[in-house]
Amino acid sequence: MPIRIPDALPAAEVLRRENIFVMHESRAIHQDIRPMEVVLLNLMPKKIDTENQILRLLANTPLQVNVKLLRIDARESHNTPNSHLERFYRDFDDIKDQNFDGLIVTGAPLGLVPFEEVHYWDEIRTVIDWSRTHVTSTLFLCWAAQAALNHLYGLPKKTLGQKLSGVYEHRTLCQDNPLVRGFDDYFLAPLSRYADFDRDAIASQTDLQILADHPQAGVYLAASEDLRQIFVTGHPEYDADTLAQEYQRDSKAGINPALPCNYFPGDDPAQEPRARWRSHANLLYSNWLNYCVYQITPYDLAAMEPKTTQAKLAG
């Protein structure tokens, strides 16, 4: 949250130059505060697990956040009870005429499937387009980041020969960007994907700023200049044992997966893994809620303006 200081205090200008948010008394007196309205489009098979993971991070803020759960795949789920979906989830038609402060689109186990063969590809593209006019800031996670990079910028994904899985030490770039404020120079984050995008293509063919990367794993975090579209190619929300569950699932399926990198103690899958990325995950979400949503969103959501940054579509 911002600090509140007298308008004329010399520290105000110093802190402003350092990109630290300061609220002058004159603004604080007239400030209106309301709950943030956030939509979670959950594409993961184990929806309840993903809800718990992401809601835990959204709760780590002094802001009041109202969350609506959204689905776009009407097929029967094999991993989530239908009673749960019917009770707690909404369809896109139910919310498409409303504006929201934030939208989170999760990953999905679709890394090896061509975009045009994804069952709900048309629906996900509709939501991405809708977010540009109805949402202040959108957080795209893993496969959703791949889908948005393809739809908005025409970038083809690069399918990997082996699943990129593990806990990678990423380098923080552009530390004056509010989304990475407080990040260490290097931080750990889980990755679990079959696809990648070329770093040079993101740098040259989009309007995005690359905020964190890894020499082998590539871009981890990127954002539009206006912070209205955020792309995270990993899973900061994962629990300590999520990668282990995926590894065991793939092993039982006969996929013969590689051992997740830098994850099991001593590279021994019989050992219990430890979460070493929680501080980064909490900081990423709190920065997103504060600087990309709360500080930007209008008090009256009906006054929301369309996204001004233009995607550099290929062709």
The domain count comes to 1
Proportion of residues in β-strands: 25-35%
Highest-level CATH class: Alpha Beta
Structural category is alpha/beta
Classified in CATH, the superfamily is Class I glutamine amidotransferase (GATase) domain
In what order do the strands lie side by side in the largest sheet? 5-4-3-6-7-12-11-10-8-9
Q: What's the average pLDDT? A: 88
Biggest pleated-sheet summary: 10 strands, mixed
Total strand count, please? 12
What spatial form do the alpha-carbon principal axes imply? globular
Order of helices and strands: EHEHEHEHEHEHEHEEHEEEHH
Based on the structure given, which CATH architecture is correct? 3-Layer(aba) Sandwich
Q: How many distinct helices?
A: 10
How does this model look, in words?
There is one protein chain. The protein is built from ten helices and twelve strands. By secondary structure, the protein is of the alpha/beta class. The chain has a single domain, classed as 3-Layer(aba) Sandwich (Rossmann fold), CATH 3.40.50.880. The strands form two sheets. A ten-stranded mixed beta sheet has the order 5-4-3-6-7-12-11-10-8-9, sandwiched between helices. A two-stranded parallel ribbon has the order 1-2. Residues 1-5 have low confidence and may be disordered.
